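Kindly go through the following sequence and its backbone structure tokens. Advise at your convenience whether the structure tokens fit the sequence:

___
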Amino acid sequence: MIKQNQRYLNALGIILDALAILVSLIFAWFLRFKSGLIYSQDATTVNFYYYLIPTLCIIPVYLILYASLKLYTPQRYKNFYEESINILKANVVGITIFILMLYITKKVNYSRYLLFILGISNVVITVLERAIIRLILRNLRRKGYNLKHIVVIGYNSLTFEFLKRIKRNKQWGYNIIAILDNNIKDLKALEEVAAVSIKEKFNFSGVSFDGMDTLEKYLNDFEVDEVFITLNIKQYDALGKIIDTCEKSGVRTQIIPDYYKYIPAKPYVEELEGLPVINIRYVPLDNMINKFIKRIIDIIGAAIALIIFSPIMILTACLIKITSPGPIIFKQERVGLNKRSFIMYKFRSMRVQKDEEEVAKWTTSHDPRKTKLGTFIRKTSIDELPQFFNVLKGDMSLVGPRPERPYFVEQFKEEIPKYMIKHQVRPGITGWAQVNGWRGDTSIEKRIECDIYYIENWNFWLDIKIMFLTVFKGFVNKNAY
């Protein structure tokens, strides 16, 4: 039943996407020629059908692009941001192909303004259309419609984690028919964690998984859409038989591995002559093209920033020299890419100290070492501006995990799991942790979580998002001491 529903949803999605393109054309044509907002010099190309026929021809190309970017796969628990980005990508490619097609067919009078409006409006309309569909489907699932009936095999901490997520996300529409295992002890705890629908449809007492006959019975007696396997690694000897039984009944099977804590949410799988190898940490910036793109952006961005902020930097340098004895630039050893040390530059915001005084002290809110000017430039992040020179040198990036002093690196790597992963990319002036408020004397654990998220999910748009957020919420921060 659920597969049939998905086919209907896919067909509806294709129809609505095609209609979105037509609506975008009507809107673009009206805005270009009928609204009076844009001057039309040549009235001979106002005829709507002149624009309609090429658009009808390009619709199949758009739908193929949408399908290639998996916009017609089930969106039950997929990220809406990623879906919107894929819609944008498809439209950029689609409008490029459209322009090429117009050039080849010599339709030289096709309005460039209309093409531009068409491209923008189709992205907006398609994203809104997808958002409305998501909202409707989630509300239906919360009310008990369009559900996926599932059987869970296994009873352990992993099972509890899975049940908690199902309970938190009722919009996923998962209805658990049974939990099968030969060692279900704490029924009360299971009922508290599980979704309410389990208690309504199934009595936990007597649930056991003694062999394939029990599983086959549930698969045959109930309309099971999926089976989720949450066995611990010691029970994996039965995995092959379970999968064979599920496939015999034509039921889709998914495995939540017992070692999930050690692999990323999107594992990077390589192949050694047909043997799959899971890379524990996928780092997009290991790719040479990604690395090259990021480095070019860093160089251009740092050069522009130095030009823009040069008056502030000159004024700050003069004020530091006037108000406090000592050097203008504070140089400090930090640990960067591949655990290599480098010298990071900042405007000096504290009185001059001996090396042994500052090496092991963390800056606090009312730190007596700060000068009056230093408090201001730290609070407004002006003290960080000389780090654009670090970016030009290649020691740092505009965006990345913040670098730390060797003393603290040695301390944190023993105390905080996965701390050293941050050194797999260049450190940054700003980062995902900073724009989320984890800056200064705050939780190192939360900071590392943000850093690992950034490292594993890097893309050009994420860097743009972080730089945008830095402008509005990163420069002045209550945790910037």
About this structure: The CA atoms of residues 31 and 37 lie 7 Å apart. The beta strands are 148-153, 174-180, 226-229, 252-255, 268-272, 275-279, 329-335, 341-347, 397-399, 428-430. The mean pLDDT is 80.
